[in-house]
Amino acid sequence: MKILSSLDAIAASYDAILCDVWGVLHNGRTAYPAACAALQRARAAGKRVILITNVPKPRGPIPAQLDRAGVPRDAWDAIVTSGDAIRAELALRAPGPMYKIGPDDYDRQLWEGLGLATAPLAQARFVAISGLNDDNETPADYAQILREARARDLDMLCANPDIIVQFGDRMIWCAGAVARDYEKLGGRVIMAGKPYPPIYELAYRELAALGAAPDKARILAIGDGVPTDLLGANRQGIDVLFVASGMHGEALWSNGALDPEKVNAALAPEGARATYAMSALA
Description:
Blueprint: E1 2-3, E2 16-19, H1 33-44, E3 48-53, H2 62-69, E4 78-81, H3 82-91, E5 98-101, H4 104-111, E6 126-129, H5 143-151, E7 155-158, E8 164-167, E9 170-173, H6 175-184, E10 189-191, H7 197-209, E11 219-223, H8 226-236, E12 239-243, E13 253-254, E14 257-258, H9 260-267, E15 276-278
């Protein structure tokens, strides 16, 4: 693994970039200017940039959200989301009914047009989760629901494999944390976002639509999530740049700089590896 100070140092080795969003380009509220500028420079040099995010909604509203956060539109070419990737699996299960977990005002577009009905857990044919119902909850708040779902041997479809993300100045739990707990109970979980293949297949199709279908050796993934961004890239056989700030804080630093040994130690429990690492995308 090589520690970098600038994306420019390796840009010539790649034709396309698959870049995470939360924790890399913005903190849930405000864009990171240096990160956005790095992608702008990459695009100006002829690279194709696909934003690849585990947000549990279709891509339709995402550009406007990025606009509000201050991410410039010339920093990316296309967007693929975990919401888009999971909708195909959800559609196969229509009309359900499903027991839904997730905030109605946030995830409404995920379910639109799928013909899925909702029902109490006792009548549901499967569980679908986009996130926790409230940002102040923790996965432990769902323990009883998970036990009841497991007793009925229900599948869980998870629209966001992320465990935890940074939102402004605090960290919030994601759907992946609840799905992880369900798997520990022996429940079957179906996910399509990072690190699973469907979202990468969407990204490759977007590259082809842009007239770029590079060999995987010419694709670079960028992300800060070890079990999502890094493992996903590893499984796809593409190089990955680990952004070691955001949710990792200064735990991976020594003497004011990113420490390769601490980075490797942080990746080891997940069996993940990074080709490069940076303290923040720049």
